[in-house]
Amino acid sequence: MERHSSQRSHPRESAALFLGTLAILCVGIFIFTKPFFRNASSISSSDLPSDQTEPDPVLSDTKELPFIPVKDIWLALGQGKDLQFLDIRTKEAFLKSHIPYSEHVPEEKISTYVTKQKGIAIVVFSLDQAELLQKVHEAFARQGITHFFVTGGVTALETEHYPLISFGDPDSFIDRSKVTYFTAEEARKYAAENTGFVFLDVRSTQEFSFAHVKDALNIPLEMIEEKSVSLDRSTTYLVYGNTMLDAFQAAVRLSDLNFALVRAISDSPPDIEKAGIPIEKGASR
To answer: Which domains occur in the chain, in start order?
Structure first.
């Protein structure tokens, strides 16, 4: 009788265990997703968060300026909002690193700036430009450009690991970690044993026209970001330039643009030719 009672208790215990586990799981899901529901409710149906006029806590005298935190930029992009990023920092700072496909707007052009795209402008700035923000706000308001300043400026973007494209600093451990190298000989062996790859020549169009690897594609280094929209991310790119540095910087930029299948050839064009890789001369592509 005791054994029979014990056997009957197993289903009740299993059911209780199942219900308890389910309850814990539901609580966990609620706690995890609660911030997302709270953030989503702050996004207006037409533009961006209507309550993002809070002053930047890092800057003073910004009470009348519209700001948006990085997390809400992510949320807006996830909701398919049409955003354009305008970077008002110095040209030097912009070239060093910036949001991919963002537009640089120098200070002298702010008052006459005409937007090139539809959508909401997200303004990127450095923290030493606090006095310039009011000028930007007034100029954009006059021209009817809906805009928001990134809360915390570019520092917040870096701190919260928002994707930025680097020019490729050879002294940066982070940039060096983005690049995998082939020697000219390794590139030759890879080309002989594989398909679905493209040699990418990042020299000038004039240098490319004079001589280049057979069937190579030419995109000058300074145009990598602009022309990357036409590249296939499923293709492996074997990148070379006049120097190892050229190939390195091109590979870094492609990596920052989410191209995972990139190899930088560490040798120069003469060494590439000596390795036996076919070269075309006097023709351009």
So the answer is: 67-163 (3.40.250.10), 173-281 (3.40.250.10)
